[in-house]
Structure of Multidrug ABC transporter ATP-binding protein:
Amino acid sequence: MFSKDSWDEIIEALSRNWFRTALTAFGVLWGIFILVILLAAGKGLENGVKKDFGNMATNSMFMWTQVISKPYKGLPKGRRFSYDLDDVAALKENIPELRFVSPRNQLGGFGGANNVVRGINTGAFNVYGDYPEYIEQQPMNITSGRFLNYGDIESKRKVAVIGEGVRNALYDKGEDFIGTYIKINGVNFMVVGTYSIVSSNGDAEEEQKQIYVPFTAFSQAFNMGNNVGWMAITAKDGYSITKLKERVFDIIKTRHSIHPEDDRAIGNFDLYEQYQKVDGLFIALKAVAYFVGILVLLSGIIGISNIMLIVVKERTKEIGIRRALGASPWSIRSQILTESVFLTLISGMAGVSLGALVIYVLNKILDANGPVEMFANPSVDLSTILIALFILISSGLLAGFIPAQNAIKVKPIDALRDE
């Protein structure tokens, strides 16, 4: 089957009418090209949308308090409540599947404008009271100095980590800032580090204009006591925060005498749930891309099947002579199938190569013109190429099956009479 004579025969048969063969091959080339481009475009859209999540730990949720909507145990509806550090301890103790339970407090943002002063420079920035593990939930690049640590928490050190936007607003270019002081609502905090966050959702500049200080120092400086404004909660690997959050809510409701069915009392944003929805959407888009691409490819396969039927008809006498000389049905069938698979593979891989070239050029254009919102790095991985190769081989066998069956049905005496 793989002898030189067999391959010479395949090349001679396919090149005998090269224009017809090229037109037939183009159908497969175009089909696999469309498949590759659709998958790459879907991947580019997926990369762009998922970049909006940043490097945030996606198995997380944010939780805050809202107005209680149902009376319970003699307490009226419409009242408000606050989280405290005991709630944080209770969640950590009762739900071991949680990796981080980070209490947070905030000045600025939805809490109102906040003046930060350094010398004659002032600015309005969000100021957060946080624990050191928050950098694991919202990864950021520490561009100088350090982030918060537990020594800061235990000693209630008035230190601050500022964003690059804060540094640019409060300090002159090239000015030393580590070890200097900024005044937040009249309280001095020493700058111990700067950070930056890469974002593609248009909020990059705003995210650099934030200040992080130790939770304990924040509480002491701004008279927060043990109050917690909101929490960032992350589940351990292998656990879903979406499945754990009802247990979280139950503990909070019990501790604050909230009706078990009061779903409005606790506000939350489930990042993992949103991420799963996006993930599911792109799985569906990938399935659609395969469906459309394979349909287009199928038209090319039909063309190859038709051309192989014509080739078999043209070689009827040759096949009859081979049968008369003792060629087995399998040798005839394998010859036709090999020709079909060969033509399909050559044209298909040409389509893959063309698709790869287009993707390369598109990435070069994107790199040259900067990031595009909701679209980044369109690409196909090795598994996609292997799947395409499998589809091509399967398609070639499918295209050649009927012509091969027709070929082995040729009777030598009938073939020799054929004109």
